[in-house]
Design a protein that fits this description.
It comes from Micromonospora saelicesensis. With 293 residues, the protein is mainly alpha-helical. Helices cover 75% and strands 0% of the residues.
Length: 293
């Protein structure tokens, strides 16, 4: 029974990695290599000017708090939490998750091409910006923190971490630093690395480890997942409404469609992060058992 449970957990993690990798490829293909995808992204980015004066302060504080120094400090803190719990393998794995996701994002950002369809001439010279480095930092730290926290506060950490990472992704859109697809792609990169980290934890897990089904955070994962799916549905409906206006340049659109594009994309960013965190939360009790043996 023990071997069978571990086998099914491994299968679930492989499926998660493959599904999220496929979702990343779909986002990249549609948002970067299709003209309509670039148009929707640009409409959302153009809509960030609505109410920008009101949210400039909070947005700047969120984004300016992210740096190489803060990432190193957060990683060290996460590793320390795992070590004081006596989980050496967990400390190493959480560190690898953060490092792997962020290195992958930088390699993809500079390795992927972005064709110019004339949709966004103002930013054409910038080239590819997918995935977002800031969103990757926030999401990787959030998921790694959820992994190392004790089971009693893990669900709370998952909600706070998902909220923080989602806010960081929306902030990059609000500041005009990134298109919405950049943040969504970043979360999917982190999701793939979270699944790979889970496989590593499973491989290094001792046979004496005590897996308690009661430690599963089913309600928290369900709330996060359903909330994320609902936000993605709102995003899909908003962006599908915009498609009727696709013959109009983003700068020529009225305030209402710009706001719909911006708000719908923000919902998509938040929804993706919630789903990624929910998927990780569903299996974490099997990867970080109550008694390590």
């Amino acid at each position: 029974m023990r071997a069978t449970a571990r086998g099914w957990t491994a299968v679930w993690l492989v499926v998660l990695a493959l599904v999220q990798a496929a979702a990343f490829l779909a986002v990249w293909r549609v948002a970067v290599h299709l003209e309509i995808g670039q148009w929707v992204d640009t409409v959302a980015l153009t809509g960030n000017r609505i109410g920008q004066d009101t949210i400039d302060g909070p947005v700047d504080r969120i984004l300016n708090a992210m740096s190489v120094v803060s990432l190193v400090a957060a990683t060290a803190t996460i590793g320390f939490i795992a070590l004081i719990r006596g989980r050496i393998a967990l400390a190493i794995t959480a560190t690898l998750l953060i490092a792997g996701a962020n290195v992958t994002t930088q390699l993809l950002k500079y390795g992927l091409s972005r064709p110019d369809y004339g949709v966004d001439p103002e930013r054409a010279a910038v080239g590819n910006s997918l995935p977002s480095g800031h969103a990757t930092v926030a999401a990787s730290v959030a998921v790694a923190l959820m992994l190392v926290l004790p089971r009693k506060v893990r669900a709370v950490g998952a909600f706070i971490g998902a909220g923080y990472a989602a806010a960081a992704g929306v902030a990059t859109l609000s500041a005009g630093w990134h298109r919405p697809s950049d943040a969504v792609a970043a979360y999917l990169v982190v999701g793939v690395w979270a699944a790979l980290a889970g496989l590593l934890l499973l491989v290094t897990q001792r046979e004496q480890a005590e897996i308690a089904p009661g430690d599963a955070h089913r309600v928290a994962a369900l709330v996060l997942g359903l909330g994320g799916v609902l936000a993605l549905v709102v995003c899909g409906l908003s962006l599908s409404w915009l498609l009727d206006l696709r013959g109009t340049g983003p700068e020529e659109l009225a305030r209402r469609p710009l706001f719909v594009g911006y708000a719908g994309s923000a919902a998509g960013i938040a929804g993706t992060m919630a789903v990624v965190m929910a998927l990780a939360l569903t299996v974490v009790h099997r990867l970080v058992p109550r008694v390590k043996g």
